[in-house]
Amino acid sequence: MLHETAPLLRLEGLSISRPDGSAVLDGIDLTVPADGVLGILGESGAGKTTLAKVMVGWVSDPLRITGGSVRFRGEDLRSSDVQRKVRPRIGFIGADPGNAFDPTLPVGVQIAEKLLAVAPGTDMAEAKKRVIALLDAVRIPSAARRFAEFPGQYSGGMLQRAVIVDALINEPDLLICDNIIQPLDVTVAAQIVRLLKELRARTNAGIVFITTSVPSVAEIADEVAVLAAGRIVERGLPMAIARSPQHAVTQELVARTPRIWTGEPAPEPSTAEVTPILQVSDITKTYSVKDRSRFFGKQNVQAVRGVSFDVFQGDNFGLVGESGCGKSTLSRLLSWVEEPDSGAILFEGKNIAEMTGRERFAMRRGFQLLLQDPYNCLPPHLPVGRTISSSLTIHGVGRKETAERVRAAMAEVGLSPDDLHRLPIGMSAGQRQRVNIARALVLEPKLLILDETLSALDPVEQGRLLNLFERLQAKHGLTYLFISHDLAMVRRVCTRIAVMYLGKMVEIADTGGVFYDPGHPYTKALLSAVPTLDERPYRTEDVLLDGEPPSPIDLPPGCSFTARCPEAMTTCRMKEPALWSRQPGRLAACHVTAPAP
Amino acid sequence: MAFLATFLIRRLAQGVLIVLIVSFAIFTALRLVPGDPARLILGPMASDAVVEQTAREMGLRDPIPVQYVHWLGQVLQGNLGTSFIKAKSGGEAAGGRDTSALGDKATVVALLEQSLPMTLQLAALALVFAFLISVPIGIVAGMNSGGWFDRFAVYLGSAFVSIPNFWLAIVLALVVTAELQWIPSIGYQGFSYTILPAFVIAIEMSPIFMRSLTSSIASAKQRNFVALADVRGLSKRRIFLRHILRNAAVPVLNIFGVQIGAMLGGVLIVEYIFNYPGIGLLTVQAVLERDFPVIQGVALISACIFVVINILVDLISTKIDPRLDF
């Protein structure tokens, strides 16, 4: 019979077009073997998601299949009858776990609902048992309790695991993973890749792994196809593609993959100038949130717990850590959007808390904050020229001078003078971010705080803006404070780096120190998770963390990293370690690496 | 359970505060508008001295906060006061013609007991009609948003909104009751007298429900998890009933809570036109006759109804969508 011999999934000459006739996918030929991992590599905009969707017969309006075929075990997936019949055999995992579930129903209930729908005859109790068992198998902590929790109570990483459970619950024959690690923190993404590797050993499903990341595809796939502008431009074994890419697009993808331990040396902190421009000493911030389970109940979220560091003139200081570690709270405190509960912040030697309103106002000119989301931080109804000039107007600069300086700043960041009267709508993320930079730059600041400023941009634009920052620094002697979860970016530009975990600094060192001689197990775990093709000094198996940071509510005594630390000792559970100087300029807060007292 | 208890306690406390503010505002406003109730009661022929004396006896010359506290103390004992005008018999004591003492006037509680059930019946039937009109149209339009039916629903809604309720009421009374003699109306002699007024209110309310249902269903349908549910193998029926309707329900419920106020306004006019003996008619008469105790009683009851319904709406909303936090 045809079904016996037909491959699991076969795309032949498949083309998908927009209504205007332009192709999204153009003559795709792919075969997914019944047992193995096909990796598909492509940059954003290459047509990856359209390809992932058509593999379950899902073509969303207004796209149309204009040629070729897509067959699951020989049956044409374009027919809706076939779709209904074979979709239970295919698991689909998308890039957006936050929107994969109905927010109004418990996660476990929805997975059980799916199992009952695709495997009639299962009863609810049985379904619940299977869902909990599988949630447990993907290492969701206290799975039985999590079963009844709502999507909003899950973190991004846990939701992605839940989506994987949902896809696997009825033991499908084909698993399609569309860019599943894209939105996750590096450590969580590394955990998900490891989970998928384990699953492929356990299940007999064919897997399609679609991604932009060369290292993760090299880690997991048996065979790789490279997608560029809707066409397959290269195929081969993963290591061959990573080592000697043939097509220009593949070469660029590989070249863009961060090098951490090879390539150019780490930027050195400047030794000549040692005046600190920003001194932070022991600041804390605790938020009080309503506890809905108790009368008038309050819970304390300790967002920042005693952070101290200095940023020196002309330095590029990096602050790294996973989501929820307190990075953004810290940036709000540093820019004095909020006041710390205790501790002091000194800008150019002056305590901000003790400044008069007028002094603080003047200080803000020298001290600008650039935020992550380029879409929500520009007023949509103001022409960008007005947006940029408004900061000068606020500081009382005359009209003529303002116009000149706005023009100069726009030219400097690479905006054309024609943009002066444009509204932000229709501008790309990169252009919007340039507007933001220009807005900060007109004030001639000394210190720029970049809170994930580049993380919403694609790598090409990211590279351009980093070059711009370098130029501006050389010209104006700026000091940068990069707050980011992107270790590779920080590695490239920063001279000193602080690693933050649960509201505390666990390590502060020069870039070389952090990357070549980390003094804290958490730093090692972060490094082991960076997607890179380099040979790592730390094996993922030894140092990668399980789970996610504990909640900053009701923290246990001792070192807050203990619960996830592979090297934890008894002392760690009793006493909170303080930062100590391992070498000149290299500090870490860890009992394990500290010398015995 | 703890959540439910905290929710109810907090919201009821807020509700009491709202009712107090509303009643004080009404109380004060009534005493600041021109028109002396004592003069209205006694008629134009009474001498100024007698009017002044009656006003003093009734407490109308005390400072407003004193009058309010006095009134509130009575309210807490279940006494909303006595109508200035309405007699116990149900007849009306217009100025001068009725010489009976204040003691023979109807209590506000008794007046509300007569008219509130009538209005609740009218409102309930109006809601049933409004739902019968708007739910099917709203759902079909929302599921086919951008299609011809959606556009039709928009036109229908605009037409309904544009029809003045008093005009529709008069036309229906003329045509359906007087000419065709299909359904009786004007006054009240049985349940069938409720149908036409309820229909008029329903026509006025349904466009808002229709539009909010259409747009919330259309936006729920756009959500990623709905498209994914199809890929995950759930049936269309299940996706619609369990996921789309559920997610569309909360905005519609909230509109409903707000619309209760609009409905009370609609009742006022429609009851007056149809001479339907409910709260609305009572209010109109009370306002025209400066019958302060009755107006205050009606305001108090309306505020309470509004508060209670909105607490219920929010409670149901949190049950549907656990992310909401009121």
TrEMBL record, chain A:
Organism, as annotated: Acidisoma silvae
Superkingdom field: Bacteria
GO biological process: peptide transport; transmembrane transport
UniProt xrefs under PROSITE patterns: ABC_TRANSPORTER_1, ABC_TRANSPORTER_2
Keywords: ATP-binding, Nucleotide-binding, Transport
Domain ABC transporter: 9-254, 278-527
Cellular component, GO, one term: plasma membrane
Membrane topology of this protein: Peripheral membrane protein
Gene3D superfamilies, alphabetized: P-loop containing nucleotide triphosphate hydrolases
Protein name, per record: ABC transporter ATP-binding protein
Record-level Gene Ontology MF annotations: ATP binding; ATP hydrolysis activity
Keyword Transport found: yes
Location(s), subcellular: Cell inner membrane
TrEMBL record, chain B:
GO cellular component, one term: plasma membrane
Membrane topology (UniProt): Multi-pass membrane protein
InterPro entries: BPD_transp_1_N, MetI-like, MetI-like_sf
CDD domains cross-referenced by the UniProt entry: TM_PBP2
Keywords on record: Cell membrane, Membrane, Transmembrane, Transmembrane helix, Transport
Domain ABC transmembrane type-1: 116-317
TM region positions: 12-33, 120-140, 152-176, 182-203, 248-274, 294-313
GO terms of biological process kind: transmembrane transport
Location of this chain's protein in the cell: Cell membrane
UniProt key word Lipid metabolism: no
Pfam families: BPD_transp_1, BPD_transp_1_N
Keyword Transmembrane: yes
PANTHER family: DIPEPTIDE TRANSPORT SYSTEM PERMEASE PROTEIN DPPB-RELATED
Family: Belongs to the binding-protein-dependent transport system permease family.
Protein name (database record): ABC transporter permease
Organism listed in the record: Acidisoma silvae
